[in-house]
Amino acid sequence: VHPNVSQGCQGGCATCSDYNGCLSCKPRLFFVLERIGMKQIGVCLSSCPSGYYGTRYPDINKCAKCKADCDTCFTRNFCTKCKSGFYLYSGKCLEKCPDGLEANNHTMECTNIVHCEASEWSPWSPCTKKGKTCGFKRGTEVRVREIVQHPSAKGNPCPATSESRKCIVQRKRCQKEGKGKKSREEKRKKSNKDESKETRQESKGRAARRQNREQRENNNKTQPKKRKAPNKEQDLVPVDTAQ
C-alpha cells in the first residue's frame, strides 16, 4: 500500500488519501468525484447525486455525469428530468416539442394535445315563456349538454353547452296556483260543514222532541184526572106517557 493511502477511512471509503479523499468505496456504495475549486475529491455515496447516473461493475460502482441538459438521468442517453428551459420527451430534453405535442409547463414535458369532448344533447325541455308553460302560444325550449373532457392548452375549445329555439304550443289558460287544490279543499270543508249542520239540526230536533215528551209526561203527573161527564141522555128516567 502506498504511504499516502490509508485503509482506516471514514464516510464509506474503503481506501483513501489525504489529498484525493476516497479512492475506493465499501460494497454497494457509489464512487463519485466532486470538484472543489481546482481539485477533485473522491466520495462514496449510497445513491448518485442530481446530474449523475450510477453504473455497477464487479470491482467498483461509479457515478457518471448526465448530459448537459439533463437534471437527472437513467443512463447518459436517457434523461428522466430536464434542466430549466427544456422539455422532456422520450428520455430526451428538447427546447421545443415535436409536432402534434405541446409543452406542459407544469411537468416540463411534451404531452399529447387533448381536445374538448362534450356529451350528447339532452332532450328538449317543455315549451315555456317567462317560466310558465301555459297562457301563451309562442315560447322557447332549451336543451343542454355537459363537458366530459376539458382541452389542453392547444386543444380544440369546448362548444356551447346549451341551445334554445322558438316553439309553438296550443294556447291554454293557466290554472291559478293552488286553485284546484283550493277548490277541493273548499268542497271538502263545505261538505263537512253541511254534514255538521245537518247533524246539529238532527240533534236539536231530537232534543226538542225529547223535551216536549218529558214536559207532557210531567204535566200528566201534576194535573188531576178529569172525571168523565155523565151522559145526560142515559141518566134520564123514561116517563110513561100512558099513565
Cα end-to-end separation? 203 Å
Contiguous runs where pLDDT drops below 50 for at least 5 residues: 233-237
How do the helices and strands follow one another from N- to C-terminus?
Answer: EEEEEEEEEEEEEEEEEHH
Classify the fold: give the CATH topology of the domain at 7-65: Hormone Receptor, Insulin-like Growth Factor Receptor 1, Chain A domain 2
What are its keywords?
single chain; 243 residues; alpha+beta; Hormone Receptor, Insulin-like Growth Factor Receptor 1, Chain A domain 2; TSP-1 type 1 repeat; three-stranded antiparallel beta sheet; two-stranded antiparallel sheet; 2 helices; 33% strand
Describe this structure in words.
One of its GO terms (cellular component) is extracellular region. Keywords: Disulfide bond, Glycoprotein, Heparin-binding, Repeat, Secreted, Sensory transduction, Signal, Wnt signaling pathway. With 243 residues, the chain is α+β, with helices and mostly antiparallel strands. It has helices at 179-222, 232-235, and strands at residues 5-6, 13-17, 21-25, 30-36, 39-45, 52-56, 61-65, 70-75, 78-82, 87-89, 92-94, 101-104, 109-112, 117-118, 138-144, 147-149, 162-168. Among the domains are: 7-65, Hormone Receptor, Insulin-like Growth Factor Receptor 1, Chain A, domain 2 (Hormone Receptor, Insulin-like Growth Factor Receptor 1, Chain A domain 2); 75-112, no CATH class; 118-168, Single Sheet (TSP-1 type 1 repeat), CATH 2.20.100. The protein has two helices and 17 strands. The radius of gyration is 57 Å and the shape is elongated. Residues 233-237 have low confidence and may be disordered.
